[in-house]
Amino acid sequence: MFCDEVLDAIEPIAAGELTPDGRIAAHLTSCPNCAAALDTARRLEQMLRTRSAPKAPAQFTTRTLTAVRRQRWRSEQFVDTGFNIALAVIAFGVIATIWILLNRSGLVNVGNGALTEVGAAIRTVTPRVSRSVSLYAGAMALLVTGIAIWWWAERDARA
Questions:
Q1: What is the 3-state secondary structure (H, E, C) of 6-57?
Q2: Is pLDDT at 62 greater than 80 in this prediction?
Q3: Rounded to an integer, what distance in angstroms lies between the CA atom of residue 11 and that of residue 41?
Q4: CB of 2 within 8 A of CB of 23?
Q5: Do 34 and 28 meet the contact criterion of CB atoms below 8 Å apart?
Q6: Using only C-alpha atoms, what is the Rg of the chain?
Q7: Cβ distance 24 to 1 under 8 Å?
Q8: Are 1 and 27 in contact (CB under 8 A)?
Q9: Any residues with CB less than 8 A from the CB of 28 and at least 6 apart, and which?
Q10: CA nearest 42: which of 75, 11, 8?
């Protein structure tokens, strides 16, 4: 058995959590360095048992939980930011792919032609509609006024 294997078991042996088996006990009797380490660990364990534990400062729990929550929030913000960036990159990739496919297939030219036709239709219809806008605006004002008077009359009738 090697010293590093025994040194890993020194602390549990000194605390009483582990009893040395045959190989570890044989090594502790034959190796003065490991035996001295076990003796030091036992003295330290005894000193820690006799010593009283200090009391926690005031609001220790509150401060600790606040720090833990703050750290958790920061890590969640980091994950959220990374997720949002990943979504933006994916969305940009999808839009770029669609744009490239539309350009390669010639559908953009068809769309441009359709927009030109819609614009021409709007320019043709606008003069005809503009003469009637004041009539429709007056009719809408009359309708809204009638509904407002009706609402006011019904409100007073209930009271």
A1: HHHHHHHHHHCCCCCCHHHHHHHHHCHHHHHHHHHHHHHHHHHHHCCCCCCC
A2: yes
A3: 6
A4: no
A5: yes
A6: 42
A7: yes
A8: yes
A9: 6, 20, 34, 35, 38
A10: 11
* 37, two tokens: 């380490």
Is the Cβ–Cβ distance between 34 and 6 less than 8 Å? Answer: yes
Instruction: Compute the residue count for the chain.
Output: 159
pLDDT tens digits, one per residue of 79-116: 999 999 999 999 999 999 988 887 788 777 777 788 88
Average pLDDT, the chain: 87
* Per-residue pLDDT, 128: 83
Residue closest to 9 by CA, chosen among 43, 37, 44: 37
| Integer Cα distance of 39 and 46 in angstroms | 11
